[in-house]
Amino acid sequence: MKLLITGATGYIGERLTSLAARDGHDVYCASRKPTLTKYKWLPFDLGSPTLEIPQDCKALVHLAADTSHNKNTSSETEIIAARALIQQSSLTGTKIIFISSQTASPDAPTSYGQTKWRIEQDILAAGGVVIRPGQVYGGQERGLFGVLSSLVRRVPAIPALLPAPLIQPIHVDDLAAAILTAADNNDIRGETLSLGMIQPISFGAFLESIATDKLHKLRLPVPLPVPLINLGTAILGKNLTARLGLDRLLSLLSLKPMQSQASLIRLGITLRPLADGMHKSGSGRRRRLLIEANTFLSYLLKCQPHKDLLRRYARAIEILDDGQALLDSKTLSKLPCAVALLDTGAVRNTVYGQAISRRLHMATALAEASPQGASTFLGLKRPAGFARAFIALGMAVLKDICWRVLSIVASPVLPRLVKRKIQRDD
């Protein structure tokens, strides 16, 4: 379909444009500055919102908004621009989709939320579609997500707001997919779609996910009373608070939970887990493979495997197998020696046991071919001597007996350690 996107160079707009073009749509980008040469560009400015909509354009996605806090740009400017787009889209029969905000409300504490709400009313009256996303994250560090990522990266602690505000995150790619679905579905008109996690999470949990899943850093939560923040912003003043982006951060404090489940079902969208979305690729598939690699190789080498060995295992599974991790167990990842419970004859006779066995064989082959594995298996640089050898042999026999007994006791729960329930043979 033919799409026209305003604000195509912004955080959401840039990703939406890229995914739409990848899916084969004919994309027109409307923005102040020219976009990449592979996209068709139309000049557009909120201050002079004249825009010629291409012929047979199916949807106009309105993302453009003033984020510069320019004193020459007022809320009325954005509202007038939106009304001009509504008029032009109605003349050409183009569906208009407005990307609003969860903060949109007639009594929102910020002008940002109030402006979004007023534009929503005009869009709905014209039969357009309003999309209210929760906290958008993932991809490039831009928008509020970029501000929060930078904050977590630079500050050694996470502010735990008291009382804790609740948010409903949505990955930027999931939001883009929802927008494209709404644009393509002729039955979706004159309605508001709320998009975000069905179960809200605390703002502190979101920051913690940025720290652990995205930046791989340890950040301790520090209680921060909301009245103290309000006092600080009062001292800074309204203009400085807006320039620092703190006004949008403060708007989270008064968020009301969205009922997003019905909208997600209507669009057929399943949101990715937060931890997966924080990954650079936007998917946890590779991360889960690396965790599985670390589990198997730590079990085999009895030490922490090198990072290049982990990557080789993940690459081998992607090329020689289905590229999906079999294991999803915190117990195994934290206690790799427990893999011995899966490395038994009784388990290998089952279908899931055979799959685990194949993965172990691949891990063993990779480990044996590595310098680290050769050093471990051949006993290089290991102190010699009869006494040491005798003690090591005794410990090996004792461990084997213990694991055999434990495997019999734990065998009923072993299938639960496997992520995917592989179909058993008839």
What topology does this entry show?
Layout: E1 2-6, H1 11-22, E2 26-31, E3 40-43, E4 59-62, H2 75-92, E5 95-99, H3 111-125, E6 129-133, E7 136-137, H4 143-154, E8 157-162, E9 166-167, E10 170-171, H5 172-184, E11 191-195, E12 201-202, H6 203-214, E13 220-225, H7 226-236, H8 238-243, H9 246-250, H10 261-267, H11 274-278, H12 285-301, H13 307-320, H14 330-334, H15 345-348, H16 351-368, H17 371-377, H18 386-410
Polypeptide structure, described:
With 426 residues, the protein is an alpha/beta fold. 48% of the residues lie in helices and 13% in strands. Strands 3-2-1-4-5-6-11 form a seven-stranded parallel beta sheet, with helices on both faces. The protein has a two-stranded parallel ribbon with strand order 7-10. It has a two-stranded parallel sheet with strand order 8-13. Helix 12 crosses helix 16. It is elongated. It starts with a strand and ends in a 16-residue tail after the last helix. The C terminus is likely disordered.
